[in-house]
Fold this sequence. Notes:
single chain, 306 residues, mainly alpha, globular
Amino acid sequence: MDITVNILLTVATAATPLLIAAIGELVVERSGVLNLGVEGMMIMGAVGGFGAGYLTGSPWIGLLAAIIVGALFSLLFAVMTLSLATNQVATGLSLTLLGLGLSGMIGTSFVGQPGVRLPNLYIPGLSSIPVVGKLIFGQDPVFYISIALTAAVMWFLFRTRTGLTLRSIGDSHSSAHALGIKVIRYRYLAVIFGGACAGLAGGHLSLVYTPQWVENMSAGRGWIALALVVFASWRPWRVLAGAYIFGAVWIGQLHAQAFGIPVPSQFLSSLPYLATIVVLVLISRNKRLTMMNTPASLGQPFVPDR
């Protein structure tokens, strides 16, 4: 039973950064913007969060720094694509490459340094309940933030007028502009929100998941988060389910290696990415599923003067 609980705990920890990054990207894509720079923002959030936490000794300051760094990095993307109308795909890829290179340079002095870990919550009486106590009442604070964030985004998109406006921009930015809606303003806010979420996901990696700095420690999670949005057909609750499925695959391959299963470790390490490819292929075969909830203006630049 203890082994099962520990595995479930690690699955939740592995799923948390995927969930946060994917929820942020979902809001961005619902506004009609495609930001492929999630990986770059995550790794910058990881190095920024670790650096701030290490220098101040406070993991909370580190977490705040990770959010700010991710938001600032996304602002660069927003200026390029929304104000200067550059290609969103090329700009997002460039943002990822920039983040990977810049984080490696910034984090050189942090390699091998002891990190500060964000402590798990402990609620007297509840956290000590067998099995359920650790799983529900003994997680790290970012886990609860991720669940609350998912519920908040679901409510915002489908229960508020502002959320409806954001979705209308994603479906037809020209029509929204004709109605007097500030398309660029809404998209700026959505992109910054997505960047803040990616930064928070990166901060979780360096302050909770592995409280240390390792170059390229995001390990492709940003790309998996992008795939999760498509897998979930742009629905928050499906992102939640998908994040935990991919988290289980991620942790499963680690435990398989630990148990000595006679399968090459390289193949086991590739399982999360193979699962991502398989899911995308299966979805692409179903045209109706592919088009379901897809923002019609996704990836299309908008310039009011044109």
